[in-house]
Amino acid sequence: MQSVLGKLSKVDKFKEYKIPHIGLKKEVHDFIFHLDETFFSNFEDSIIGKSAIEARVNFDKSHEPNLLTFKIKGNIDADCDKCAAITSIKIEGEFRVFIKLHDELALSNELDDPEILFIKTDTPEIDLSSYLYEFSHLCIPFIKSCEKPFESKDCDLEVASKLSALKKAEETEHQITDPRWAGLNKLKDK
Question: Model's pTM, two decimal places?
Fold first, then answer.
């Protein structure tokens, strides 16, 4: 009874994010994965929570080295960097990983190149979960903002008014305290 419970506790959370390697014909194969908060909650330090992401993976097994092409596209909920409201941010990106068959390098992982995955020749399947996780995070824009900051219905108007007041105060301070800014302000207004 205990061995059955032990097997149940080792449920593979990433089973649906594995693709077969052995048994696939030497041609191009397409896979589609849907990533949401359930997927990202399996990773300890994920900054992606609520999301709707589609990952299209093209597995070109027709020549050596094999090629995986990841096309990530979707939306994530994130804090707007301008108004601090939670907003939907579009993400999109394309990445590739070469798969090389090499029994010794697959075990040692000596080469630390993120674009090359060494696997053993008898590897039955390839786990894409870490690539899907990493590539989704790499698609997040550096500056996350609403489509129309301070005009959207989701914007935090209290933050917007405080930022506007701070900006006006800062402009006033520059005009009064430092006359060197006058020439630069003329350029800014053009």
Answer: 0.75
